[in-house]
Design goal:
This protein is an alpha/beta fold. It has a single domain, classed as Purple Acid Phosphatase, chain A, domain 2, CATH 3.60.21. The longest helix is centred in the N-terminal third of the chain and has 22 residues. The protein starts with a helix and ends with a strand. Bound molecules: zinc ion. Zinc ion (ZN) binds next to loops.
Amino acid sequence: MKMALFYRSTATSAFFCLLVGLTHADPVTLLFAGDLMLADGPGQTIAQGGDPLAPLAAILKEADYRIGNLEVPIATGGQPHASKIVSFRADPRVVTVLQGRFDAVSLANNHSGDYGHEAFIETMQHLDHAGIAHFGGGPNLAAAHRPLWIERNGLKIAVLGYNEFKPRAFQAGPNWPGIAWSEDDLVIADIRAAKAAGADLVIPFMHWGWEKETQPSERQKVFARKMIDEGAALVVGSHPHVTQGAEIYKGKPIVYSLGNLVFDGFDYPEAERGWLLRLTLDKSGVLSWETLAAQIDDSGTPWPVAGAFTPCGRAGDTTPAECSNP
Ligand SMILES: [Zn+2]
């Protein structure tokens, strides 16, 4: 009799554990980085056998999935775009420093098209070859608007990438390559479509805002809130070369700009302090989030800043807190 009871209670608890296991999967940690510009100083570092991502390797390694903004075509071909004052192009060897550090990159920015369609297509080929996913750009408009799908621990995340900083000439067309432009109606349609396709969480990664401005513009604030109203789990951005603070809207974090991560050539100190954004996610949304400061040296290499205080938060918070960096 005792034996039978014992057997029954273990069977029940095993069943209970199975249920818990099914309904409470482990959260997913997702990390976002700002602008990765791998030409110029960082390109030289890599050409000389250096590794501008080495100081952050441990932080990058901890996350389940890592996403950055690739602010440069990676190619040997193409021609500089006529309308651009600054055109970047990185040697294909730079892909090796991204490997194992970034799972995916956004192409939706104002430099992906610096060397034209040929170099843009070549960039995607180098990323494909290296096993690094890409989004926010593609061989045509439909592909450029297709989400990056991340499936981990039973959680289905759709990440969308958009640029709204000129030139618009890099925008993909019905049958030509390019980036996804941040056209409000299209962005909202994409968020809804990702939800309809089964996304538990939709995350827009925006390339927006005015350069050097340490506060978001009215446009960024209004559109970030609109995207959350339409179902985004959070909003994250980059481009201004500086960080732009964070806020919480309807319980969902907005981190307006992560600033630079690997980038050189700036003459103002704010451009040398970027953030990583580390998110802990489950089906309910963002369980917790924290920014991690990176101090960028003159060669464009970022370094962790232990003890720096940067925005962070947890589910249920109504305003961001400041957390000390590890
Ligand atoms: Zn940019």
